[in-house]
Structures are given as structure tokens and as C-alpha cells.
Design brief:
Helix content is 30%, strand content 30%. It has 6 helices and 15 strands. Strands 2-1-3-4-5 form a 5-stranded parallel β-sheet, with helices on both faces. It is an alpha/beta fold. A hairpin with a 4-residue loop joins strand 14 and strand 15 (233-236).
Amino acid sequence: MRVLIVDDERLTQTALAKVLSARGDVEHFDSANDASEALEKLATTSYDVLLLDIDMLDLSSTELVDQLGERSLPLPSIVFVTAHVEHAVAAFERHTVDYVIKPFSNESINEALDRAFRRAKGERAAKLIEALPHLQELSRPGHSMIAIKAKGRILFINPGDVVAVQAEGNYVSLQRESDSYLLRESISTVAEKLKPYGFIRIHRSALVNTSFVVEIKPYSTGKYGLRVKSGKEYSVTRGYKKNLKPLTEFRIGNGAFLAE
């Protein structure tokens, strides 16, 4: 989670930063000294949670929330940090998850963050559901990109750039010439998704993009090897030898492929 602290008191910023630094679910946090600085950061950076002091000199945090809405900026989960209980009602009316009374304890801040994080996760899940029709459209054959989920993000990858896919335990590695992506997915699911893009199964735990294959080599064991443009070889087991049939024809631009 990404968190923005907005407070004009340096001691409060330090105390909140100490709590955030001790949590394993906070990947990044920033601090803003007032609402104006916060608006600048929110205009360029996405945050999941805001920790807002209600009383600031330039602009109250309730006015800050109103301005976020007026500017159509994304509204993160909000926790008000206040010395005044009477502000609590106004806070909840502006979609606040929680409020914490100054002086606060680490426990009270952590409890408020837990509630804020749960809401943030739920909102992201809802947005992902809304986006699914678009993501599915991107994943259809004929589209130049496919959508994959990796480490909580949606990545768009050109399948033509993927050389091979190999299973690694409960994960699969999508290998490109320059890098790779590790996904928590089964090799069978990925094989079905990549089949329209020229990928063939050569092993129960491996797929190869046929557009990268430059040579088929028979082994004395009855198996075959596929050499790709980078020079790397992949072994083809007997059970998947039939999948080489489309490669036994000469295809200009992809090299000469030898028949059995």
C-alpha cells in the first residue's frame, strides 16, 4: 500500500512515519506539510490511504477532500488525525474510513490503517471487475497485447515478444529475450491463452513461441531439441513430438525446419 501523510506538525509526521515503517504491507509513503503540497503530490502520484490532519494553516483537510472531488482526482481511503472530537462527524460525511484523536497511540493508528487498507483492497477489486470486459477484449486473438496479473498489477505484454514459458512450481515464467515475468498461474491455463499466438507445448512444463524457432534437432534418445534465435535449446519430450508437425514445413523468414 502507498500512504501519504498530510500534517503541518513535524513531530506528528515523524510518529506516523515510524508506524508506517514498521508495517510490512506499506510499500511506500510520503509526507506533505500542508494541503497545497498534498494536492501537488496527489495530482502526480497514486496513494491508497491518506493520513490527514484536520487543522492546517492553508486549507483544512475537509476542504482538501472537497477539492480532490472537484478536480476529479482519485480519492484514496482517508483517516483523519485530529485533536478535536467534534470534527469526527464531518470526517465520516466525507468518506473517511476512520479518525484518530491526538495524542494517539501506535495501536490506534495501526487499527485505523488496517480498516483503511481493507477498504482500499475492496475498492481496487471492484475497479478490476469493472475493467474486466476491456481486459478480456485485449486478450482476444488478433489483439497485439494480452493482459496478465502480476504482483497485484495488470501488465500488458505483446505475446510476440515472449520466447518461451516454463513452469516453476506453482508459478510460470514468461521469458522474453531481455527479461522475464513470474506469474502465479498453471502452465495449462497459460498454454490455452497463448495457443492462438503460435505457441506449442513441447513438455508438460514448457511452451515455445514457434516464431523464435530456427532449428529442430533429433536426439539419439528419440527426443527432439528446439533451438531458438538466441541459441538456447529446449527439449521436446516424446509425448509432445506431434506438436512439431507445423514446424516441419519450410517457412521463409523463420528458417528451414527439418522433417523427421
